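Listing S7. Sequence submitted for prediction.
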Amino acid sequence: MRVLLVEDDDLIGCGIEAGLRQAGFAVDWAHDGRKADLALATTTYALVILDLGLPKISGMTLLRQLRDAGNDVPVLVLTAKGTVLDRVDGLEAGADDYLGKPFDLVELLARCRALLRRSQGRSVELIRHGDLSVNPATQTAMLADARVTLTSREWAILIQLLTHRGIPQSRSQLEESLYGWQEEIESNAIEVHVSNLRKKLGAALIRTVRGIGYVVERP
């Protein structure tokens, strides 16, 4: 899944970016509000992590513009301002959750996963599909009683397909879930990763939709 990180502090941003990538997310990092505004206008994200104290366009202004435009992407607000009124203002402007600085990276990742679950209509972390169960928090996949080892790219594609069951995902949509701004898109990578997933999880799991892409059907 692709996440937009909007943070002007290099030290904090580097730590968050590294943690998100290790947790299996593709990350775009915007260092100011103007770059974030452009990113949101041109790219679809599963989640936005937004600092309020930004140069050029403030985080609060960016949040209000996002909601006024009808974009309902989940937004986790980060800020050094920790008063009750600050939190209320952020939530009423359209934030889905609020985390004050300083914070623990483990908590940030847990809040990100919780927001994603809600946006996908899930109440629990574990995703089940027939004999397959996957846990995004621990990045583990079990087929029946056997653990299946997946690469980070295979994992990202599997999560994208499972969280959009019944909705065909195009090659470009899958690429967006895999690659951030700084990552080079590999030729035929999607086809190779899907082929490997079929070998590991069964050929019937992922269906090719001719002229569109791939889909995991609803149970």
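Caption to Listing S7: primary sequence and predicted structure tokens for the chain studied. The chain has two domains: 2-119, 127-215. The chain is about 40% helix and 20% strand.
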